[in-house]
């Protein structure tokens, strides 16, 4: 512990960590276009409300989302699981669909993950739980479905956490905290593996005393390929400092709730991050930070989460509160509805690919003109 905090102190003060991100520049031309998700495609969006988040995808490309009390298949409009009325602590915040069609459902309020069967029965409650977790708020799963990574936060304390859960033997899950305190990380939120599962990415937002968001960053940590956990002494590296990206409006980034929320990666290393109060999604290439694009949204305001869905996994589905489409409507009304946008993208998402192929893309994927080609 002492060693790792000393090491992170050195990292924090090393000019190298900021120099890496200096040349990031966001392309603000409308290279990607967001469309309103139609209520025919997503009948389940209608009543989800302001707490919508935790998007996941199934192997057929159907998209699921959660709100505080419901797990919903957005494409069918079926609520698969509902928290019991007496469970006042329930706060669903994340979901991941397995190859079997079962769904891992993250309950931040009860600090546990449940397993829900295809037809909505609770098959494990808890599936995995840990009283030391701050939440979990979001989670990501390895392609072999044996390793789960979870993030949580405590807003008031300006704190976050990251955890590993080994779930190859569901009867005996193993737990390991990946320390974020003393490593320059504050409120962690979005969490994702890179396409080849060499690294774990996590977002960090820092509050000022006056509750503005004074730092919005993404960090990564290398995983030991044998254990799929960070090796002893491994520390977080700064990947992208959004305040240092040219082309993003600096003043706006300093507003309250300017958090990176959900983030998901495609099989070629394009990470799509939701910037909550900026009302935008940012695509950044994890292999080349100069390759960054800002994407405006169509109907979603305050995007919380996103995932690649659709038949070939190339429709990025973004959820959040609705934009005020009627300027006369009271803010209150519009801000309690959930909306969904679709952004057509070039390459399928990592999670979709893993569900389809049961494997990581590895070097087998070559960038084609518009689609990845598997060799
Ligand atoms: C959550 O979603 C369900 C199903 O759509 C809905 O009935 C419920 O009102 C929503 N909760 C909130 C707080 O919006």
UniProtKB/TrEMBL annotation:
SMP-30/Gluconolactonase/LRE-like region domain: residues covered: 78-318
Keyword Hydrolase: yes
Name of protein: SMP-30/Gluconolactonase/LRE-like region domain-containing protein
This protein's UniProt keywords: Hydrolase, Signal
Signal peptide residues on this chain, from the entry's feature table: 1-19
GO molecular-function term, one example from the UniProt record: hydrolase activity
């Amino acid at each position: 512990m002492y060693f790792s905090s000393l090491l992170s102190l050195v990292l924090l003060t090393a000019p190298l960590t900021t120099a890496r991100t200096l040349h990031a520049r966001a392309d603000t031309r409308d290279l990607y276009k967001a469309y309103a998700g139609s209520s025919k495609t997503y009948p389940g969006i209608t009543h989800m409300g302001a707490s919508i988040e935790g998007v996941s995808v199934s192997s057929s490309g159907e998209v699921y989302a959660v709100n505080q009390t419901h797990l919903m298949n957005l494409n069918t409009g079926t609520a698969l699981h509902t928290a019991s009325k007496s469970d006042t602590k329930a706060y669903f915040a994340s979901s991941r669909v397995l190859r079997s069609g079962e769904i891992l459902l993250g309950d931040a309020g009860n600090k546990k993950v449940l397993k829900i069967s295809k037809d909505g029965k609770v098959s494990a409650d808890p599936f995995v739980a840990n009283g030391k977790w701050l939440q979990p708020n979001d989670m990501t799963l390895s392609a072999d479905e044996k390793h789960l990574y979870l993030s949580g936060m405590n807003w008031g304390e300006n704190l976050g956490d990251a955890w590993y859960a080994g779930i190859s033997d569901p009867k005996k899950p193993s737990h390991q905290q990946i320390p974020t305190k003393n490593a320059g990380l504050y409120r962690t939120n979005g969490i994702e593996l890179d396409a080849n599962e060499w690294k774990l990415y996590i977002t960090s937002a820092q509050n000022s005393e006056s509750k503005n968001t004074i730092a919005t960053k993404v960090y990564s940590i290398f995983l030991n390929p044998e254990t799929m956990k960070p090796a002893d002494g491994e520390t977080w590296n700064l990947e992208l400092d959004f305040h240092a990206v040219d082309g993003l409006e600096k003043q706006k980034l300093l507003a309250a709730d300017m958090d990176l929320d959900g983030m998901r990666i495609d099989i070629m290393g394009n990470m799509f991050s939701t910037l909550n109060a900026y009302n935008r999604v940012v695509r950044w290439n994890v292999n080349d930070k100069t390759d960054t694009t800002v994407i405006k949204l169509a109907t979603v305001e305050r995007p919380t989460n996103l995932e690649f869905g659709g038949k070939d996994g190339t429709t990025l589905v973004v959820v959040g509160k609705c934009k005020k489409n009627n300027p006369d409507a009271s803010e209150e009304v519009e801000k309690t509805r959930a909306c969904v946008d679709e952004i057509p993208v070039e390459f399928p998402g990592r999670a979709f690919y893993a569900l389809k192929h049961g494997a990581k893309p590895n070097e087998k994927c070559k960038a084609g003109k518009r689609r990845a080609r598997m060799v």
